[in-house]
Amino acid sequence: MPGRDRVALVTGAARGLGAAIARELHAGGTRVAVLDLDEAGAVRLAEELDPESGTAVPLAADVNDAAGVDAALTELETRWHAPDILVNNAARTATGSVWDIELEEWDAVLGTNLRSVLIATRRCAPAMRERGWGRIVNMASLAGQQGGLVAGAHYAAAKAGVLVLTKIFARDLAASGVTVNAVAPAAVRTPVMDDMDEAELERAAATIPVGRLGTAGEVAALVAHLCAERSGYLTGTTVDINGGVFMR
Ligand SMILES: NC(=O)c1ccc[n+]([C@@H]2O[C@H](COP(=O)([O-])OP(=O)(O)OC[C@H]3O[C@@H](n4cnc5c(N)ncnc54)[C@H](O)[C@@H]3O)[C@@H](O)[C@H]2O)c1
């Protein structure tokens, strides 16, 4: 493990896919900042990764709050340095009929799931560009390509926005060694499903060609690949990870 030179910031990393991604990057030799609205959860994961706090730190912030994100990044820069790797993973899963979503709820979901990507990327990318190396991975969703079947229109619209923002940033940063890619999972077992009916989840799994839900570890392995040194020619793409539900 060569010196843990790289610093990764994973948003929404207190649980679910974000936590799995933070674990994977940390196991691969990267220092990891665990950012989440859930401060206790972020502290818990950072302590699990490194009880000495030398290679994993918690950061508490709301990704939709530009000042809060800026303060968290300043804290990280003081401690280590600006992130070499940014995983925009934090999001709110939201459901509801397109006819019934309250406009305030629409704005809140677009804020947490899309505006947040703009905020964090604009805050983190300049240092990557200056350094001539960077990896940005945005968590999108099958819902952003097909419209949500279970997810609401606000969630799906935000994720569609994430896909195009990925391309815009990828093109802009390509010449400076910074790659920007999106990962689009479909149904992956995370705590967000704990409240769902198990029989309904089983029925959903039966419609997936692979015959099961995905695991957080499978998504994390893909994200780590996109963040690897040797992935420098891979940019502006959306990688589907959905058990064969959607094939291009
Ligand atoms: N699980 C799936 O099947 C699936 C499918 C497609 C896409 N995704 C995407 O993958 C990502 C992770 O999903 P998950 O299932 O692990 O979700 P999750 O709800 O289990 O975890 C999300 C994490 O983000 C944090 N978070 C929420 N709002 C935040 C905010 N405003 N600021 C900071 N942190 C915030 C939460 O506290 C939580 O720790 C999301 O972008 C989600 O849209 C997941």
What does this protein look like?
One of its GO terms (molecular function) is oxidoreductase activity. It comes from Amycolatopsis cihanbeyliensis. This is 3-oxoacyl-[acyl-carrier protein] reductase. InterPro entries: NAD(P)-bd_dom_sf, Sc_DH/Rdtase_CS, SDR, SDR_fam. One of its GO terms (biological process) is monocarboxylic acid metabolic process. The structure is a single chain. This protein has 248 residues and is an alpha/beta fold. The protein has a single domain, classed as Rossmann fold, CATH 3.40.50. The chain contains eight helices and seven strands, in the order βαβαβαβαβααβααβ. Strands 3-2-1-4-5-6-7 form a seven-stranded parallel β-sheet, sandwiched between helices. Strand 1, helix 1 and strand 2 form a beta-alpha-beta unit. Helix 1 crosses helix 8, helix 3 runs parallel beside helix 4 and helix 4 runs parallel beside helix 6. The longest helix is centred in the middle third of the chain and has 29 residues. The chain is globular. The chain starts with 6 loop residues before the first strand and ends in a 7-residue tail after the last strand. The model has no long low-confidence stretch (mean pLDDT 95). Bound molecules: nicotinamide-adenine-dinucleotide. The site of nicotinamide-adenine-dinucleotide has 28 residues, from helix 1.
